Amino acid sequence: MIPEIGHFALILALALALAQSVFPLLGAARGNLVWMRVGRTAALGQFLFIVVAIGTLTYAFINRDFSLLYVASNSNSTLPLEFRIAAVWGGHEGSLLMWVLILAGWTVAITRFSRHMPEDFTARVVGVMGLISAGFLAFLLFTSNPFMRLIPAPPDGRSLNPLLQDWGMLLHPPMLYMGYVGFSVAFAFAIAALLSGRLDTAWARWSRPWTTLAWVFLTLGVAFGSLWAYYELGWGGWWFWDPVENASFIPWLVGTALIHSLAVTERRGAFKGWTVLLAIFTFSLSLLGTFLVRSGVLTSVHAFATDPARGTFVLIFLGIVVGGALLLFASRAHRIGLGGSFDPVSRESMLLLNNVMLAVAAGSVLLGTLYPLVLDALGAGKISVGRPYFETVFIPLMAPAMFLIGVGPMAQWKKASLPNLAMRLRWAFAVGVVTALLVPFAMGGWSTPVSLGILLAAWIVTSSLAGLIERLRLSPVPGGILAKLGANSRSYYGMQLAHIGVAVFIAGATLVTGYETEKDVRMSVGDSVEVGGYNFRLDRLSEVSGPNYIASRGEVSVTRDGRAVTVMHPEKRTYGDKKNPMTEAAIDWGFVRDLYVAFGERLNPTTWAVRVYHKPFVELIWVGWLLMSLGGLLAVFDRRYRVAVRKPQHASASLLLDAGAAGAR
Amino acid sequence: MSVRMLLAAALLALIPLAGMARTAAPMAADPALELRLMTLAAELRCLVCQNQTLAESNAELAVDLRNEIREQMRRGASDQDVIDYLVARYGDFVLYRPPLKASTLLLWSGPAILFLVGISLLLRTLMRRRGQIAPTPLSAAARARAQELLGTNSAEEPS
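YS: structure for the whole thing
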């Protein structure tokens, strides 16, 4: 009975989503305030009904209701509670349900926190979000219903993929979806702007905190996915250029271009058309990413053919969203206007160059991800595109963009001079070069790729510092250094922090790639091996049993120069009916190095193949991504986005100013 | 006590010590060959895995293939010989670095084409943009408001 309530709630949510799109959009077109307001109420109602739906599904998982096909396919009676909850989004249907929940959540947030926007604009944003939601709810109800019964009910369900039975499963997908779906807000803002013809700096200022927030979530989602792969998959790598990873990385690249382009639109009124296009593309790629991962097309293009209903729906939906948005853009493009002028050498032009590099990089990753699928679908042979291809293509494209991080923020808007920039940055560059020359030797041996990577990282840090110092020196704010520091906006510090995050990431990736050591040995109790100056000795082997697995567990004591460092416990787990045992690597986390021990195969009853890694500075990779997202968060909470909320009369004055400025242009 | 017995006693005494500090045997007898094998295997696909390289995988087939490659290398096969052998058996699917041929031409040239298109669009925009719009001076009121909003930023704005 309870799942039927969830099913019914989902149907009601679809009805409300339709109301949420039709009334506000028509109301905005006709100037009918009552119709516009329907959107707010419908959005809240839709959200509540989806909460009911996902609540009943969760209830079914917690109570092991295997009469639901979805529950029986994704959990069994031995699965611990926390993973029965995570299993709600462990499969296709449930993750779509979470998608619409988050979408409705973002919509409600917009109706709450956008009181400073004109009613008709909010109505259009909410209406567009409603259309997207209606599409997804229809997809759920007609092709991917999670409340489908399985009668007679089986005594037990199938097991959740052991790889997903991890705390990462509780955090990574929700985070990633917050980002994916968050870009629907940027998309809705862009469509609303095209519909209303209101594409000005005020629009950019409304859209910017939402877009940045979505980017923050996507950044965390990508980083978390990488971290999870690192500790869960047991190969010791942190990025595999797997299509599933690329599906989240491509929207991230375009989204990064978008937040930079929005900065120019807000400050200078330029790049409006490009910003709108990027908003459309970022969301379209998020949609594509969701469907690539969820449709099974990545494992085999033929998975598509076995379930033509889903595939057809997806293609039509993508076609409507992308095609419709681009048609609208094309029909309104001539009215967009150019905005402020600028010189070929200016902050605007550098941000545009950064956008081109990010877009080309995203396009190349997309090409490499889709190419094997297309080739296979055309029957032109099966090929694999992996790390060698992506690194050959990606690194040369991104390195110049990374270099620009140092120059762009120092360049003036409108017109900058290269000699002047060179003057102001010469010390930063000199310090960067010296660091790049010294670090490889300090790490134990010259390596040109390492030196180049460190040069980029050091350059970003030193040039950011040079920018800050210059700002303080020229600051007209009276008082000491603290007063001058405090006068800078949060978005300025956010930018600096995010850029330094990029540097930290580059440093980590470069150092671990250049200096990690690995040994592949056979070990029985009493054997020891020396890796990276640490001595690893296998002291004990035991069999342990977890809630739904049994594991062979090793006890490895680690010493350095005779002193005890830590004791590590690598495991090889066998889950219920699964044939292949899972590797549970043991990791000793540390800022300057990770120690990583993973069991391979059992060679004989007392001997294991063991891989032992010493990974210097690997954690800087995730620290860097964390800094990037913190920087984004800092920018979201910049005061200028809130001024308008607290003082509405002030906001309308500034809108008038913007409208006046836009008119003058 | 003869010398031989003394020696035997000494050896016996050493056995527990040896047990304490026994160094684990590397999986491969020849580390240089193993490095070459793993470098090559990192660009090859494990055919029975989801998406894993031959170097990373512990699947049975991957282990067998590694043994096969190791054996071929020991007999003096070059990297290219090994690749040719694998492609003949499993097709291009086994290579993570797709070979350049008619069907992959677009794959390998795509990024360069994208780059050239992007850069030429950029240059065209920049050239057209220069001086296309006469700069509009801000009114005094707008300027004051802007300064209030921007705070210290006004210092670096060219006046």
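YS: worth flagging: Chain B has six helices and one strand.
IM: good catch. Also The mean pLDDT of chain B is 76.
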